[in-house]
Amino acid sequence: MNALGKALLGFWGSSIGKKLIVAVTGVMLVGFLIAHMVGNLLIFQGRESLNDYGYFLHHFLHGWGIWIFRLGLLGAFALHLVATIALVRENRAARNTRYAYDATVQAPRSSRMMIWSGLTVLGFVIFHLLHFTVRIDPDLAKMKDPMDPSRHDVYGMVIAGFQSPIVVLFYIVAVSFFCTHLNHGISSLFQTLGLRSEKTRWVTGKIGIAVTLILWLGFISIPFLTSVNLLKDEGVPEKSAAHGSAVETISES
Amino acid sequence: MNLTLKVWRQAHATDTGSIQTYDAKDIPEEASFLEMLDIVNERIITDGGDPIHFDHDCREGVCGMCSLTINGVPHSKEKGITTCQVHMRKFRDGDTLWIEPFRARAFPIVKDLMVDRTAFDRIVAAGGYIDVRTGSAPDANSVPIPKQNADASFDAAACIGCGACVASCKNASAMLFVGAKATHLNLLPQGAPEKDKRTLALVRQMDAEGFGNCTNQYECEAVCPAEISADVIAKLNRDYSAAAAREAVAD
Amino acid sequence: MAYDGSTTGSNTDTLDSAIPEGPLPEKWTKYKDNAKLINPANKRKYNIIVVGSGLAGGSAAATLSELGYQVKCFCYQDSPRRAHSIAAQGGINAAKNYRNDGDSVWRLFYDTIKGGDFRSREANVHRLAEVSANIIDQCVAQGVPFAREYGGLLDNRSFGGAQVSRTFYARGQTGQQLLIGAYQALEKEVSKGGVTMYPRTEMLDLVKVDGHAKGIITRDLCTGEIERHAADCVILATGGYGNVFFLSTNAMGCNVMAAFRAHKRGAYMANPCYTQIHPTCIPVSGDYQSKLTLMSESLRNDGRIWAPKSPETAKKIREGKLKAKDIAEEDRDYYLERKYPSFGNLAPRDISSRSAKEACDEGRGVARTGLGVFLDFSDAIARLGEDTIRARYGNLFHMYEKISGDNPYETPMMIYPAVHYTMGGLWVDYNLQSNVKGLHVLGEANFSDHGANRLGASALMQGLADGYFVIPATLPNYLVDQTPGAVTVEAPEFEKAEAEVRERIEKLLSIKGTKSVDSFHRELGLLVWDKCGMARTKEGLQEALERIPEIRKDFWENVRIPGDADGVNMELEKAGRVADFIDFAEVMCHDALNREESCGGHFREEYQFTKDDEAVQSGYTNEGEAKRRDEEFAYVSAWEHAGPGEEPILHKEKLVFEGVKLSVRSYK
Question: Of the candidates A20, A111, A196, which has its C-beta nearest B215's C-beta?
């Protein structure tokens, strides 16, 4: 094996190497979440914006874009997961006996629940993909944009998807768990990437909390507002519909 | 004062071990924690039993030999001290104290509360030094060191090698110990020539010894008697990434 | 048997100290120029045993391995980094003259000789001063983080007994940082294969073959295994014997066993009566107390030391009926300020310690045990403000509060002297070789450099000088005449020594008495502290010499050691050490009895200045000060073991002073 290969293998084999992989993939996933949230928030601009956005995602780079993106995301997610599992196995082995009297001095609760909050995230992601991406519910799957029946009605699907209080509750709880994972994860990024120091220490923890809080509010707002009927599908205003069909006309000509 | 002790007793390395209960009666409040154990041991010996074995030596907080946990926390919950500096007046009459050895696969138990910490020595042997031959050193003042670097290096060098960081870590990670050693030497101009080699060697030996990984909970920092900051771990991560990258691509 | 204290029956031969010819400042250079050498290819054939891994042992093992020798290094702790050198706080002296304040090798030499009350060997001390500068270079190159100034260069401070600033320091952890430097050098050599480290291993005997030290018998403290180790020479760097007093500032494990085993095998024990008592330690608080904690002497810069004038007041304080602040100014005795108006609270260690003892002996002690005096900061706080005092002594006040539970900002500290360092040790010549050929002794374990009293910041200097620079240069002189590997563990001497070690362990375990090892240690410690501590008298020492054999007899009949020898047994370890302390205490008391003078750490009440002395009448010194008798006692007492229970045989090494003129120390 050449030197580079050896070095890469050594990197993966080392504790810090694997942690760096978790951190870097974590950065990618957080980046995705921020973009995802911003996209989601288009819902507050109305049906047209959100559905435009959805259409864009499915068609940029002639439809290849989303698959390249999804593969990248999947890769990051898988690496994050595999490296974490390897680390957890090593950690369990390193502490093979437990204290009869178990005590914690200062480790935050979120940091001690990473494995559980992480598994919740995994469960949630699967549910979420089935719910809104694969759309196993045929009622959601067949929704069409009333302004442009040739494309999927993301807006209507989201509102309809959050009609069940159980689903909303599940989303809120799961996203909250997700956010405890992010809270520790984001502040840890700085440590693992070597960016935490006496001078930066005060801000790295705060960045974790701030980003988490923004993501939490951003993600929670949609199911919550839907459930209290502040965000609802009010049909298609006349003007927009006309505009919409104009677009369609152009695209068909 | 009277206390109940729940003490881990293990006759030898391969024994399974268990918690045993002892009454510590009429303990003077001025006694130190280890002196309390001395008193209990003296009574055990008089009663024909085998005294509780624990490591200790200087009893002034600097040798790093004392290695037990009090109610699950290495060196007790008091900040910045070792077990030998814990005094009984910090406890209340009637308290039950759980006394256990440092628990980590890399620190096998020798007997009762004594553990084998030679893994730390092997880590230092792997690279925790500056390779200078006696007699070859230039004049001490020939290389000025900015005070700020010297002070930061000192903060890391204050490590007493007790292993409380490992014992407190849920993953039995030695990152604080290794980070402190790397930071101490990597910050000094004298340590610069071997910086990459040292960092890689320290981390590899740490992994080989079976310590866990850091999950950034900073329990180590909270129990460290030398109050070493977990910033040294961030620095180790940084130095390691750079060293690994240079190793992969540079000549 | 009452010993009359005379020196009759002792040998008056002069020991060969092997001091090189020539003027004092040239001796070491000439010695090195003419020293024998071993070529690199042959060095690796030699095996060297180093017992002890502190500053002296650790640095010697590392350096000898660098030179190519095969080294085995032993320590009783779980890691070589834990040796008690680590606890030294203050600093390390070196004649660098970085301060441009007129320091020089000669001045460091002179201060050390004078500080030692003219009872050390000039040639050794001069060599120590010469290599002191190299030590700092070496340590800085190793990464020892000494204190620095803003310009990036090394900082210095002044220390007791010197008028120049020559002390290098690393916060309050100089010993720790220097030891870690030596430890890292040692581990570096372990990784290169030159040193094999044996932690948790205790030396139980020295093996001599044809009169030469050729190996040791050890016990693995984890498995209990008794092992033989053969080598071409043996180096002991096993520290001092302060724990003979039971309570001291030494670590719990510090012991005299290795040195005493060597003594029993023929090595002379030199000046064992020279022990240093440090004045500012935290007083004993009860019978259970296991050790004493030292606080930096710097506290005496701002603290005023006092005891109540009347024993009645002191009694009320002891009983908690009165508090320090209830005592009116006129009822306080600031005894150091009274007796030594010009030095006041900064009087030297031995003077301060003895004065505290006197106050307590008069019933004026204040701690609950009656053994303590006040160190009061209330004047300093009133004058300078609490913040200034906190900035100067915050960490020390914090440490005091942790141990005593009292807040020194509000109530005066209580202090009492404690055993701190031992100047005596195995006799060595200029090569650091004992009278037993092949046995070399370094650091606190030897006697050579500090005379009757050690100056602050000199212990670290000596340990590292011996290990890094002296022994690597002197050892070849012995080795060159030895055939490497000529002696193996199969030699009958090893078999015999091992059998004796096993027999001793079995004997200890078979007693199955009723008293714990610690109880004997405590009893012995109290006795020698009382009779051979800060002040000694002929009667007291004779009494101790009668009592020690009784303690020994009681020990060997009634000690209780639980468990067996197959595995960890800390009581067994302690028992072996205490048995040797008992025997050692006898030599120490014999030495103190023989030395009919007062010098440095050895104060014989019979020998002090009185008002009839000319030096007192002229106002040069005070009544009650230590009185040396240079005509009769300017020699090193080197004691030869004469068999169990027998009075040891005295050998004298006459001290010849070429460089300095002997004078009376004065602190007025």
Answer: A111
Residues B146 and B228 both lie in one domain:
yes
* Cβ-defined contact of B49 to C562 (cutoff 8 Å): yes
- Averages of pLDDT over runs of 10 residues in chain B (251 residues) are 97 95 95 96 93 96 94 94 94 97 97 97 98 95 94 96 97 98 98 97 97 95 96 96 89 66
> Can you give the pLDDT at residue C5?
41
Last residue of a domain, one of B54, B77, B111: B111
Chain C residues with CB under 8 Å of B39 CB are 288
Residues of B in contact with C577 (CB under 8 A): none
Chain B interface test: which of A2, A8, A15 (most B C-beta within 10 Å): A15
**Enclosing domain of residue A197:** 14-92+111-236
**Among residues B60, B92, B111, which one ends one of the domains?**
B111
Q: What is the 3-state secondary structure (H, E, C) of C461-507?
A: HHHHHHHHHHHHHHHHHHHCCCCCCCCCCCCHHHHHHHHHHHHHHHH
Interior/surface letters B205-241, b for 16+ CB within 10 angstroms, e for the rest: bbbebbbbbbbbbbbbbbbbbbebbbbbbbbbbbbbb
| Residue A200 Cα, gap to closest chain B Cα (Å) | 10
Residues B163 and B225 in one domain: yes
Percentage of chain C lying above the pLDDT 70 cut: 97
Q: Mean pLDDT score of chain C, rounded to an integer?
A: 93
Suggest the residue from C132, C288, C518, C558 to mutate for an interface test with chain B (most B CBs closer than 10 A): C288
Q: What angle do CA A77, A81, A87 make, to 5 degrees?
A: 145
Average pLDDT for C331-358: 86
Same domain, B11 and B62: yes
**Per-residue pLDDT tens for C86-107?**
998 888 999 999 999 999 999 9
**In which element (H, E) is residue B85 found?**
none
Give contacts of A91 with chain B, Cβ < 8 Å. 170-173, 212-213, 215
Into how many domains does chain B fold? Answer: 2
Residue A245 has pLDDT above 80, yes or no: no
- Asked if B26 and B93 sit in the same domain, the reply is yes
Answer for the pair C286, B38: CB distance below 8 angstroms, yes or no.
no
- pLDDT at position C667: 63
CB under 8 A, 24+ apart: contacts of C123-127: C123/C17, C123/C19, C123/C20, C123/C24, C123/C27, C123/C430, C124/C430, C124/C448, C124/C449, C125/C449, C126/C24, C126/C25, C126/C27, C126/C28, C126/C659, C127/C27, C127/C28, C127/C430, C127/C465, C127/C470
Q: Report the alpha-carbon distance of residue B105 to residue B117 in Å, rounded.
A: 11
Helix, strand, coil abundance in chain A, percent, nearest 5: 75, 5, 20
Q: Is residue B56 domain-shared with residue B176, that is, in the same domain?
A: no
Residues B122 and B106 in one domain: no
The three-point CA angle B126-B132-B136 to 5° equals: 165
User: How large is the ipTM?
Assistant: 0.97
- What is the distance between the alpha carbons of residues C451 and C114, in angstroms, rounded to a whole number? 9
User: Does residue A251 form part of some domain?
Assistant: no
Question: Which chain B residues are closer than 8 Å to C79 by Cβ?
Answer: 117-118, 120-121, 161
C-beta atoms of A102 and B231 within 8 A:
no
Whether B141 sits inside 8 A of C153 (CB atoms) is: yes
* Identity of residue C454: R
Beta strands B96-101 and A144-145, pairing class: unpaired
Q: Is residue A4 part of a domain?
A: no
**Ordered domains of chain C (ranges, CATH):** 47-273+421-479 (3.50.50.60), 278-419 (3.90.700.10), 498-654 (1.20.58.100)
Cβ atoms of A7 and B251 closer than 8 Å? no
Per DSSP, A131 falls in state I
What local confidence, expressed as pLDDT, does residue A237 receive? 58
Residue A252 lies in a domain: no
